[in-house]
Description:
The protein is an alpha+beta fold and 164 residues long. It has 1 helix and 10 strands.
Amino acid sequence: MTDVARYLGQGLFYALFFLPIVYLTHQPQHQHLPEGMAELKIAVRHAGATIGECTDVQAGVYTPLPGNKQRPQICPRERSPLQLELLMDGKPLYLATAFPSGLHDDGVASIYRRFTVPTGRHKLQLRMNDDVTVEGYPWVLEEDVDLQPAQVMVASFKDGFRLQ
């Protein structure tokens, strides 16, 4: 009879261990997005245009240096910040300026944002300027999108905007 009691005790302890696990796997209902909403993400990692022009080095400035270290020109390293604007149905949804990374502001600028937007048909406009010497937005994406409930749409940039 002691074996039966031991097996019943083990069964009770296993049940006490597994019942909370079964409850927690079925009970908490997680909903990533509210009903009738979709998610729009912007992921941009881009190096802006170099600020400034290369200047010629005056003769004799690098004469004491060895030949492989003499440079005919000095070029700036600093890059332009990115100016990004997102419009949905003609209304501004996001406006940001991302500055370049790096010690001398010579790296890439990064923008990553998520937006919860209503589903349905929308006119999406995404504009970016990566050169401080240019007025306006040289990179433009204008597209009509039909967002479905719980859909995730990503706008990325590599030699132009893409929607996925």
